[in-house]
């Protein structure tokens, strides 16, 4: 591929410093086609179309510029697709959204032959012509809401039949959903196949955790606040994902992947934003360089620092094999071999069918040396960043119990978003990430070398599980997971706080 061909992509990297003035002011105009491949599927219905709807409603997609195309094999009409989307999106449709529905077109075709993609290209071109868009100035965003097995043929077809000429400021971008492979080898193979067709600036590997409000806040929090700087190198860090429901009809998919591939290798590892060094600037490449560096510093995982679980009843799902060895729960301790993090355990924990739904980052500090208040029993200082539910950041600390006595109590400095930012609607992760794609900002997307580094960490462990060398322990649905996981946490130095009850702030 000639390097001069992607003029526009180069311009976007200049713009993609998210906080720069240029970014704010360079307009992205011109006809925009958003093509959702796999439009008949679950993700498209649950996430992609609602995100597009919200962007439209908030004015980020202009009716005079945007047209939305659905593509899949299922034979349905434009109206069928509109009704499917409408069913899920809001019964309370506003006048403005009706307009959006007129701008949705469905094309049916297969994923590996040219006919359907030629037809799709014809429809997109007709729309571009109707908008008087000069050839080469239009923008085409292909969103692959599809099983990864069809990414290579679909990318080949797009490359062959649906590319936009980029010589007048237009572009073609591809959004790919996880899972990006099943291990290092398959991920590298997939990357190579797609990499032959598209250059890295055209590829947006989406990990929706990177679109969550508090994940986006991590860099600001860490590098714009002086008082965190000296503290950010201890004492143990837990990154936790819990769901209070099981695989719910996705057992077939899940059993092929398991909790490490489904959640830990991607979503939780993205939170390496917590561990990376300060980037040179906010340019996406500078940030992604630092993420790669920290991932490459992770030492091989030791079997004794892993606890796997499978909830009782998981195998009752008819799509799950009777003797499945797939973990639905895992606690894994990562060790980062660099100056900042030597000796600090990073505990990644994820599980389905647990006692609550929560995702958070928890930094725990060791006991105060020479404590004159004898207050360790009340719990250690902790700084918690809660991604969901109810976004919040809070610091658990020891204070004097109000009153005449000199006694101590554990309390918190609390920044609960609902209370502090009343009336502010926090956008859905997918909305933000689709908008970033349109703007050409790759900061919150996974770069190819980052993906490789992530798979390098987990592949040996995954192969041992796949080969049956490591077995998940059974746990009760609705519990905390296997008790052995709590024992591992304790061994890693985490001290659980007992008796502390967080009281949600009221107005
Ligand atoms: N669903 C979710 O909550 C999430 C999904 N993802 C990822 O997003 C992508 C899409 O997920 P999801 O929508 O759930 O997937 P679906 O299983 O619903 O598949 C999407 C569409 O792809 C087509 N399809 C399904 N199976 C095959 C196949 N074997 N070969 C060719 N085409 C097929 C079907 O369309 P048709 O038959 O009409 O062509 C289907 O409607 C996946 O990569 C998934 O891992 C990521 C995060 C969450
Ligand atoms: O990617 C996935 O994420 C969801 C959890 O997403 P969240 O935004 O609701 O936290 C998880 O349920 C699913 O198994 C996984 O594939």
Automatic annotation (TrEMBL):
- Oxidoreductase in keyword set: yes
- Name the InterPro entries on file: G6P_DH (IPR001282), G6P_DH_AS (IPR019796), G6P_DH_C (IPR022675), G6P_DH_NAD-bd (IPR022674), NAD(P)-bd_dom_sf (IPR036291)
User: Which residue intervals define the domain Glucose-6-phosphate dehydrogenase NAD-binding in the entry?
Assistant: 35-217
Listed EC numbers: 1.1.1.49
Pathway entry: Carbohydrate degradation; pentose phosphate pathway; D-ribulose 5-phosphate from D-glucose 6-phosphate (oxidative stage): step 1/3
Q: What does this protein do?
A: Catalyzes the rate-limiting step of the oxidative pentose-phosphate pathway, which represents a route for the dissimilation of carbohydrates besides glycolysis.
Its family remark reads: Belongs to the glucose-6-phosphate dehydrogenase family.
Q: Which organism is it from?
A: Populus trichocarpa (Western balsam poplar)
Question: What Gene3D superfamilies does the database record attribute to this sequence?
Answer: Dihydrodipicolinate Reductase, domain 2, NAD(P)-binding Rossmann-like Domain
Gene Ontology terms, MF aspect: glucose-6-phosphate dehydrogenase activity; NADP binding
Q: Which residues form the Glucose-6-phosphate dehydrogenase C-terminal domain?
A: 219-494
Q: What processes does the entry annotate via GO biological process terms?
A: glucose metabolic process; pentose-phosphate shunt, oxidative branch
User: Origin, by domain of life?
Assistant: Eukaryota
Q: Which reaction(s) does its UniProt entry say it catalyses?
A: D-glucose 6-phosphate + NADP(+) = 6-phospho-D-glucono-1,5-lactone + NADPH + H(+)
By its UniProt entry, which PROSITE patterns does this protein fall under?
G6P_DEHYDROGENASE
User: Keyword annotations for this protein?
Assistant: Carbohydrate metabolism, Glucose metabolism, NADP, Oxidoreductase
Instruction: List the taxonomic lineage.
Output: Eukaryota, Viridiplantae, Streptophyta, Embryophyta, Tracheophyta
Q: What is this protein called?
A: Glucose-6-phosphate 1-dehydrogenase
Does this UniProt record's set of keywords contain Oxidoreductase? yes
Q: What class of enzyme is it?
A: oxidoreductase
